[in-house]
Each structure stands twice: as C-alpha cells, then as structure tokens.
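retry 2 of 3: previous attempt timed out while embedding pyridoxal-5'-phosphate. Reduced batch size to 1 and resubmitted. Inputs unchanged:
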Amino acid sequence: MLKDMTSNPKKLVADWQSLMRTFIRPEDDAARSTLLKYMEQILFGLHEFLKTNVGFTEEQPLKVLGYRFTDTHLNENPEKKLAEVITDLIEDIAPNAVNVASPYFVGHMTSAIPFFMVHLKTIVAALNQNVVKLETSKVVSVVEKQLQAKIHRLIFQKSEDFYREHVQNAETTLGTFIEDGTLANVTALWVARNKLLAPKPGFGGVEAEGIHAAYKAYDIDRLTVIVSALHHYSIKKACGVLGIGNENVIAVDVDDNNRIDMDALEKVIVQIRKNNRTKILAIVGIAGATETGTVDPLRQMAMVCSRHGVHFHVDAAWGGPTLMSAKYRHILDGIDLADSVTIDGHKQFYMPMTCGMVYFRDPTHMDAVRYHSNYVIRPGSADLGIKSLAGSREAVSLVLDSALKIMGTRGYGLLIEHGIETAHEFAREILSRKLFQLVTPPELNILTYRICPEPMVQKLAPATLEQRHEINEKLNHINMTVQRMQREAGKSFVSRTTLTKGKRDGEKIIVLRSVIMNPMTTLEILRQILDEQEKIFFSAFRNSDIQSLCAL
Ligand SMILES: Cc1ncc(COP(=O)(O)O)c(C=O)c1O
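retry 2 succeeded.
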C-alpha cells in the first residue's frame, strides 16, 4: 500500500504487496518488533500528552482548527506511512484534543480511565468480534450473557435459581449492550411502547402496524412519558424516535432537593387519567441527574407505578455503579423494583467510549423487540442481535467483564466513595468562601455553585421577583464569563448549565457544574480551581462593576 518511489521519496502509491502486509500477522522477529514499536509509540506518546496537558487545551483556537480542516477530497494514493500517521495523531491532534484525564478537568462525565482499559480495548479491536451473532463471536456472546446476568444481579438481586435459569437461556434476555445511554433509554421505552401497544385480535402490534394504527386499535390519541424536569434530553429523543412526540414528555417539578416532587407527580397522573384517550407509557426515575447528580425517590416512584400499572424505567446511566459501594448503595434504594434500568459503562464503570446498557427485571420483556432474518438471528438461535436495537457491535462486554475482574466491585466502590466524599468536601469549601454560593449540594458526586458575593445572597432573599430577575441576570453574565475565561486559560475546567430555581417564578440561573469522578482530583486541586475563579472574577470585573452589582 505504501511504497516509496525512489525518484521522489515523498510520493507514495497504493501497492498490492504492501497492502497485503497490513493484513498478515507478524510472522518474524522483525515484523514483531515493528508492531511493538508502533504500540510503544502510541502508549508513551499519548502518556506524555496526558501528563503535560490540562483539560480543554487551547494550543490552537477552534476557529483556526476549522480553517485547517477544510480539504474535502479523498486521496487516490496513500499520503503517509503508519509511523507518520501515528506521529501526527500524537503531536498534532492530541495536543488540540481535550485532556479529559486531567484531575483539573471536573466539568463533565468523561474523565480519566485506568490504563489497562487501553490494553483491553486493543484486544477487542484485534479480535474484531461482532456480537450481533454467534457465528462471528461464539464464546464472546456467551461471556456477554454471563456478564449481563452479573450486572442484572447487581441491580435486581434476584434469586440463585433465577440466575441459574436465565444466565445462558437462549430464549430469555436480561438486558442488552448498546452504543450509549441515549440508546439504552430508547431501548427501554421501545420495549415499554411495544408492550403497551401489543398485538391483539385484529391488530398486529405497534411495531408492525405503526403508531397511527396502534392509537386507533387502543382507542387513544396520545401517549405520555412522565419524568422530572431534570431528565436527560435522551428521554425526549426517545419519544421523538418512537413516534410518541417529544412534546408528550411531561416534566414534573422537582422538590427543594432536586428530586421529583411526589405530590406533583400524583397530580399529573390524576390529570392524565381524567382523559381516557391518553395513556402513560412510562414513568422515569433518575438515579444521578445529569446536571445535579440527584437521585429520585425510586421506591416511592415504583409503588406509584405499580399502583397505576405503568412501566417504571430508571435512568441510572450515571448513578448505577453506586450500587457497588456498600456505603452508598442505599441512595438507589428501590432500583430493584424498576421494570428497566439504563446504566453506562463509559461513565462510572470508567470504560473508554462507549458502552451503554439496559436491563429488564422481567427476562421476557425484550421479546417485544424481537427481530429475525434469514441469514443471521434466525428463530431458535442464541444470537444476541435478535433482541437489540443495534446490529453489528463490538465486544465491549469483554472490557467490562475484564475490568470487573481486575477491580472487583470493592475497587469500583472505592472510586465511587472517593467521588462522593470529595464532592462533599468541595461543597464545604464552597460554603466557606464569601464569593460563592452552593446551589445544589452533592448527593452523589456532582454539585453546582455560582459566583454570588455574600451581599447579593442577602439581597436576593427578600427581593421582589423583578429585583431578583435583575440581580440574577447580572450574576448569570458573571458566571458565564468566568467559566469561559477559565476554560480558555486551559488550566482547569468546570462546566456550566442553567437551572430553574423556585417553582413559582421559575428563575433561570447559570451555575458552575462540577463532576468529581477522577480519583486524582483532590480537595487541594478543587481549592486551586476556586482560587482561579476568584482571580478571574476580580480581574475581569472592575471594582466599580462589583460595587454597582452589590448596590442593586
Ligand atoms: C442521566 C443520563 N441519562 C442518559 C445520558 C445519555 O448518555 P450518553 O451520553 O451515553 O448517550 C446521560 C448523559 O450524560 C445522563 O447523564
């Protein structure tokens, strides 16, 4: 493929013999040492990047990068050799990527991963199994089914007999791996939709006949999904994709602890039930809200769902792995009563991108999304692709299965505990500083706060709605500016989001959001991040700005 032309060493041409060499395994010492050299180049080259860069690197502004990457032609002949491509990736791309592994990068749900994940992921790429069917994965599908039973047990805690019956049962399905948390939520609601609008005499089911025919067959005009206002936008996406309509996601207010308000939930249900042409497809509980990390009262919600005969889905994409901490698993009390649970591997299982999963309490529920074809996933086979939104997919289950062997649930539990406890220490630090206001205290390892000088806090409490609006607008501007400037300085990164405070007037406030999952992130580092924010605030806003703000 890559052959030097002696007259012009820069010119490479596609060449069959060289091309073949890239498919054949290293057979002699020379080939082996070349292969090792490349792996070494990758591992140590990237290690250097991860060591020396912090968070959102700003070697080149995005605008400049945009100009650099505008050539839309595919080259007929090879441009570069593998070694050069690797060098480019390490020296040119990586420095302009984001070092999410930095302990100063505490803004998102993407963070450092244990080094062994890279090795495990390499095995997955090298084996290149396709778990859609046994013919391209064999034992890997079997291992995946076993792992599904293990994670199912972590969530649902069924009996020994239950797992003995289902662990390798080709007919039943405890869950499925899927690209990400979004598609896991789509899968859960897909199953719930198909169960609710199931085939019956004279009707072939919503999956076969579509949503219009289903509404006619069931004599309804509308389906709704009920979830707290802090839901991840994937719930809306799911309702869009499934033909339910994202406007039919009903967002229930949260209480003062950012958990779904149970009284408000009951009222919404009563309201919907008044109209017998509207049905509730599912009620979704959140176990680790994206913006605040808070966990809904899952047990209470499960009881409400059971009383009304409604599918109860728990979006534990973020918080699910908390179940591995003996100290904090009680926060997710009631998750075992869910009908379905989303949980992400690339979040708090510390896996490389990406690994979504969804589990079902009842091992027959996924029958509602069963598909067959003539050449694979035939009736009677144990192909995992029979009940899966994905077609071809990689064997990420091998990574998670191995990681669990290396870390044990206790190891994961320690990571979870570090995150939660550091977040609590951070919250105390924020409370001790006069410039900051803690907006949502951590329940798990996410918290939000904002720059709000103490005099403003005093002023906000008795203020009228109009005065509050004026003060908050100014504070929003300050927080947005400081967050942006800190990101651009490239030393550390917290994210920002907009929260709605107060049910009555729905005041929108911009807050700084910290997600503490990197075990290298210490309280000292978090203090430095606050120090930097203070410094930016005092340098960006003149004394007169601050005084006029306090005078509002
Ligand atoms: C609670 C929750 N659910 C679902 C998702 C979607 O996950 P993904 O980004 O893997 O699609 C997220 C992502 O942040 C999340 O926080």
